[in-house]
Each structure stands twice: as structure tokens, then as C-alpha cells.
Amino acid sequence: MKKIYFMIGVMAIMLTASCGFNNENQSIQVVVTDDAYVFEAKYPKGKTERVVAYIEKQLNDDTFFASDEGEKSGAVVLKDGKNFRIKSSQGFLEIEFRKQENSETNYKELVNLCTGIREELK
Fold first, then answer.
1. H-only helix segments in 21-103
2. What is the mean pLDDT of residues 27-53?
3. Is 7 within a domain?
4. Residue span of the structural domain in which 81 resides
5. Is residue 19 situated within a structural domain?
6. Cα-based distances in Å from 64 to 34, 43, 58, 59, 78
7. What is the C-alpha to C-alpha distance for residues 29 and 39, in angstroms, rounded to an integer?
8. Entry pTM
């Protein structure tokens, strides 16, 4: 019985320790279809402030996110007509926009925004 408790304890410690070593993992995925463009980034939480600052600078809106933690979720329509959905939290960002809901110019600007975010995360 003592061995079982010991093994459970060892596994719990290993699990806890392994979670702490994943802080530098990062993945960026872009899916482009005939109808939509989806950008998804998972990155270390420590890079969130940089991503938030970049997005707010590019959108020319200091209050796009409520805080430096970058939490936001839902549909967004900007003054210039850009229309997209965003889900974000510390270490995670997803931007999705439909091509038919945006002009060609706005589409290109949103693609450039996502490309810039990718560069910020390097």
C-alpha cells in the first residue's frame, strides 16, 4: 500500500515539474480557405504584453484590449470596416475573418496584421 502512495506522489511531482518546462513551446497555425482566414498562435505567456502592444499599435486603438493580459473574445467591427472574430488570453490568440465580410484592402491589412504578430513572436 505504501508503494502505491509513493508512486502516486512521484507521478504527481513529475507531472507538476513537466508542466513548468513547457513555457517556451510555441505554435502558430494559419488556415486559408476560399471563404476564411484563421490565424492561431499559442506562445509563452510572457510574450502576451508584446503581442497586445503590437495589435493595439497596428489597429491604432490603445484600448482594444481591456488590459495587458490580452483577454478578449467575440466579434469585432472596426471604424474602417474590418470585421473579424477574436479569442485571446495570456499565451493564446485566434483571429478569424471571412473574406466576403471584408473588402480586399481590409483583407490584406488583416493578413499583414497576422504576419506582423508572427514576427513579434520570433
1. 48-59
2. 96
3. no
4. 24-120
5. no
6. 28, 20, 11, 8, 10
7. 6
8. 0.79
